[in-house]
Amino acid sequence: MNSAHRPENPDKNGQSLPSSDLTSTIHLSALRSVRNQRNIEEIFASLSQQEREVLSQLPRNSAMLVVVAGASKGSRFLINGDLTSIGRDPSSEIFLDDVTVSRKHAQIVRIPEGFKVVDCGSLNGSYLNSVAISDEKLTVGDEIHIGKYRLTYFSGKGNS
Asked: Rounded to 5 degrees, what angle do the CA atoms 66, 71, 74 make?
């Protein structure tokens, strides 16, 4: 008897076929839950009075990301430059200290219509409203998912 016995699998006709040793990969990103897009009134209602006041004072051609989930929940990041880096590198303008975040994970880039998010080839990817993205324009209320962090995008007056 062969000590390296291989189990057999029946084919569609019930005949036994030797099984082969296969390895498969499961991509966990495909298992992410899909969140229904909330309307802007619901998003503002979920904010504190202080957060609403801060957002109402955002200057023209600026934006803000508010952390709604992650280790620094409640943190706010002003976006007012042409390029804002996001990552685990301490020199990032938006420093997200968690192993699920790449050192140079993503960037917020100014465009004529406002801002866009660009993934920088991160290991775990960047998601906008639960969809994997590489380069996407931002709209008020969009949720950026980076590692364990979820950040909601708000723009200043004059932006979309």
From this structure: 30
The token duo for 18 is 């030797």
How would you class 148 by CB atoms within 10 Å of its CB: exposed for 0-12, middle for 13-18, buried for 19 or more?
A: middle
Instruction: Report d(CA 101, CA 91) in Å as an integer.
Output: 14
Identify whether the C-beta of residue 124 lies closer than 8 Å to the C-beta of residue 29.
Answer: yes
C-beta separation of 147 from 28 below 8 A: no
Judged on CB neighbours under 10 Å (0-12, 13-18, 19+), 27 is exposed
**Taking the CB of residue 50, how many other CB atoms lie within 10 A of it?**
10
109: Cβ contacts below 8 Å, ≥ 6 apart: 82, 83, 84, 115, 116, 117, 118
CA atoms of 51 and 36, how far apart (whole Å): 23
Q: Which pTM value belongs to this model?
A: 0.70
For the stretch 13-45, pLDDT in tens is: 666 655 555 554 544 444 444 444 557 777 777
